[in-house]
Every structure is written in C-alpha cells, then in structure tokens.
Amino acid sequence: MARVVVVGAGMGGLSAAARLAALGHAVTVLEQAPEVGGKLGRYARDGFVFDTGPSLLTLPAVYRDLFLTTGDALETVLDLVPVDPTAHYRFPDGTEVDVPNASRSGVARAFDEALGAGAGAQWTSFLQRAGRIWDLTREPFLESPLDGWRTLAGLARSWDAVRTVAPWRSLRGLGEQHLRDPRLRMFLDRYATYTGSDPRRAPAALATVPYVEQVFGSWYVRGGLRLLGDAVRDRAVERGARVEAGVEVVEVLVEGGRAAGVRLADGRTVPADVVVSGVDAAQLYGGLVRAPSAARSLRRATPSLSGVVLLLALRGRTPGLAHHTVLFPDDYDAEFDAVFGRRGPQRPVDDPTVYVSAPDDPALRPDDDHEAWFVLVNAPRHAPGAGVDWDAEGLADAYADRVLAAMARRGLDVRGRLLWREVRTPADLERATRSPGGSIYGTSSNGARGAFLRPANRSPVPGLFLVGGSSHPGGGLPLVGLSAAIVADLVGPA
C-alpha cells in the first residue's frame, strides 16, 4: 500500500483518488478551495441553480468504467439522460438547425433540410474520415501515456494511417477538404474551442470531437452536472480516500530525487510515496516543484482560451428552447483573432459566438415560470499589463451588456425578462481555480506540436504524476477522466 497525496479536487484529482483508493492505496485529497469539484462548479441564488462548468457529458463510457471499476454502476447513483437535440444552431444568414443526438443519419437529414440538399452527404463524408482518425488515435493518443514524438512515430509505420490523421493539416483545412458549405465549416470550427484552440491552427485530429459527440451521444445529469463531481467524490470516500477542502499546498517535497509528500500553507507537511497533481500544470511547474525541462516545454505552448460567463435569472419561459443554443457571429475568424492576439493584441471579442445552456430541469429553477441560463462567450485570458485586464473598472458589466445585445440581434432578446445576472470573467476563474489567466484547458492544441507540448502524466520527478485538463490527454470531462485512468495504471495496485 502506497501513501498517495492528490493535490486538487477537480474531476481529474477526484477520479484518480477513487481509482487509486479502489486499488488499495491510502489516499488523501487536498483542495485549496472551500468546496471540491474544480471547474465543475455550481452557483445557487433565490431558487435558481447554475452549473458553472461543463454542461454536457460526452463519451460517458469513461465514467461508467470509473464507477464499475470502483464499485456500483454509474446509473445506480446518477440519472443520466440524453440531450436531444444536442444543440440548436443559428448561423449569420438566419439559417437554423437542430442537431439530433447520437444519430449520424439524423444529423445528415437535419443538415439537408436546413442547409440544402447535399449538405448531409458532405457532413457524412467528413464524419467517416473523423471515424477513421478516432480508430487510429484513440488508444495511442487518449488511453495511453504520452511518449513524445515516439507516440506519433508508431503511426508513421503506415502511410495510410499518417495520411488519414494528416498531422500537417489543421482542423479548418480538413473541413475545407470535405465541406463545401461555409455554414458546415463554421459548425466544425466550433469544436476547436472544446480544447480552447483556434481551428486554423488546431490539428485535424480534433475531428474526433464531433465524431464522439454524434456517435456516443450527449448526456446530462438530472439535477445538474455538478452531481457527477459529488458522486465521484463520494465514491472516492467510500473506497477509503480522505478528502480535505480549504487546505492549500505550497510545495511538492522531493527527497532522494523523488516526490516525498507536500508542504501546506500552514507549515505542516504530509508525507507520501506518490503525489498526484490535479492543479494546472503551469501552477505545478511554476512554483510547487522544480522541473526545468517541463517548465520550458510549457512556455513554448499557447495557453488555451478562457471565457466570460453570464448567469441569468429569467422570468417566464422561452417557447421551443433547446438545452443548448449556439448563436454564430458574422465573422468567426475575427473572434479567434481577438482571443489569441492575431492582427492586433488580445482583446475582448466585439461580436462573439454566444453559447447558451438552459436545461429544462425543475431542480434548477424556483418554479415552472422561470428559467436559469448559463451563457458563455470565448475570451482571452486575464493578463494585466500584457493583454486584457478583466478586473479593469466597469469592463465586466459593459461586456455583459454587449453580450446581451448580441443575443438580441440574433433573435434571443431576454433583457426585458432579466431578474438579475451574475458575471464571471477570466480573472474570476483564475481566482477560483488557480488556473493561470483563467485558461479553461491549460494549454491549447494550436500548432502541429501542440499535443506533444501538453504535460505528460508522468512528470520528470519520479513519484509525481499529473491528471486533469492541463495534462495529457487534455481538457473536458471525458479526457480528464481518461487522465485519471492512465495515472492509476501508472501507479498500479497496492
């Protein structure tokens, strides 16, 4: 039995804790915030309840495996329901389309009906290519520890495999190869933001993101996605893990060349045979432990985008409102230019894509005559002096007004129904989660080398491992869960 300290109780840390405790290790989880869950947050006020992080679960097999591996099935503790349609999309020309859940033929029909005959065939052709990429990359790139360029070298033995994955091509470039309709290309571009990236620079391999969503479905936890975090925490505790909140780790201790525990802000030390870091890799390598090579690699990577969030308490109900609504702008490239500082410095997006999550869930509203909306727009990181200072006086409220006005221009005006709003900026996200600049996914996947610059699960310090969205294989609930499974395999049974 090893003594394991998990630093950070986000979904990566909690999932790793549950798996390692089930393997027989003595696990202690230390979280600096008052509550566990990390970016899988929740806000409640006046009977309105909001998930403040992920709003849907894709690839649920990751968490089904976690629960089966550690005890009872996921469905014994949570009510997992499909989201259908997955989302309602509105394009700049006024075209609207509901994308059905887990039905490739249904998606093709929806595109044909909304965009014109032949659009469905274009998307089907693209999705077939994405499926081949998924088959080739799933095991070596998502379910196994990253082994640098050697991981890619395994694919290089087959020219057909290399040609399929096309590591030299961007997601935008792959879309242009298969999709003639500009609205389909816009639809595809949005999936780059699932990893905090720019579709013009993100690799073509991200085609697997819409493939996974449309093949394995989109799911929601009745009562809110936050309940998934609570359930994983409970499973970890049931298997014997100890979880402490409000405890700040200030140093990973290294003795004899390997991780030996952690030092807390109050001066106490917690000895360990294994340390699992669930904090942002930039925080880990920037101050908690000395690992010069890992720190240099991080500095070469492009940080992921962040976001501005509006939590809206609304009176009345919206006829025909989908669980998710996406309102595209006239100029999508201008959005990515602003967020990543191209054609000028990083700046708030003038006319952003607006993403609305509004589950029809009685548990999230005071009564049936009200709605709780989570609204997200992409934004550059908080970077006072070097980019956008989201703490600048008046900026947050002024930008929230701009977002509400953009929604109104695109046919979703809720300003007359607004009871109150809560605005959260990248600066707020940084304070809440210690994610530098409020980057949602750590580093982006921008550039051909982006995936290989993402910190590996096994650190350069023996006995120190990384989980969570800033480490391999990336951000989002499924990949975070996979990082925990990888680390549990690396540590092994007691």
Automatic annotation (TrEMBL):
Asked if the keyword Oxidoreductase belongs to this entry, the reply reads: yes
Which UniProt keywords are given for this protein, alphabetically ordered?
Answer: Carotenoid biosynthesis, Oxidoreductase
Which Gene3D superfamilies does the record match to this protein? FAD/NAD(P)-binding domain (3.50.50.60)
Supply the SUPFAM superfamilies for this chain: FAD/NAD(P)-binding domain (SSF51905)
* Keyword Oxidoreductase included in the entry's annotation: yes
State the pathway, as annotated in the record.
Carotenoid biosynthesis
Q: Which residues form the Amine oxidase domain?
A: 11-312
Give me any GO biological process, just one. carotenoid biosynthetic process
One MF term in GO for this entry? oxidoreductase activity
Instruction: State the similarity comment.
Output: Belongs to the carotenoid/retinoid oxidoreductase family.
Protein known as: Phytoene desaturase
What species is this protein from? Answer: Vallicoccus soli
